């Protein structure tokens, strides 16, 4: 017989006074340059869905956080022994998920444009885009190139197109709302962009929005929010009471904590 999620994770329950009935939700914070974030992104959605927890996807930049600590590079490069272990560990984790690691060169990749594109997307497109971009970077050897970005946008566009095909009018309106307040990101069935996925996302509009002041400010604000929440590495998970869990291996513990908070 399988153990409850809390028993498997070893998570301690939140304080009784912190518990309240609510829809369980967990924030997933990640940097597109992070190898452990790749592993987490590949499994977080299914784990959260199976647990009955809504997952909120939060791309941000680790670079400014590392710089504040005096690092101008990934700690996996600053400390070679740590880096060698981390890559071996990531390869083991990938193998356990049935994935083949292709290490991007150079590492880390510059994730600025990727994060901006992510924040220019409607929230509903973010999970598909994120998973597809991580796959292009760490599995297909494309890094965070323009080719990788466009490929991930095509995947997200197909997901949005599928959602629009079955969504109500109200849901369709919600799908068009981007997290950074941009508009015009959905293309109608008659749109004629170069990309074949034009019936889902207006890819040209998304890429244009990624360079807007609104999205640039949204990314700065998101990274500042990560710092304010105590995040110092990626991936990280934050429960609805602000409890922070750092690392891919803390996903199950974070889910258990959030379920306990919600009285589940």
From TrEMBL:
Region named Disordered: 1-22
Keyword Protein biosynthesis included in the entry's annotation: no
Nucleotide-binding recorded as keyword: no
Protein's name according to its UniProt entry: 2-hydroxychromene-2-carboxylate isomerase
Domain named DSBA-like thioredoxin: residues: 26-162, 197-253
Molecular function as annotated in GO: isomerase activity
A Pfam family per the record: DSBA
Entries under InterPro entries matching the protein: DSBA-like_thioredoxin_dom, GST_Kappa/NadH, NahD-like, Thioredoxin-like_sf
Keywords assigned by UniProt, alphabetized: Isomerase
Domain of life: Bacteria
CDD domains: DsbA_HCCA_Iso
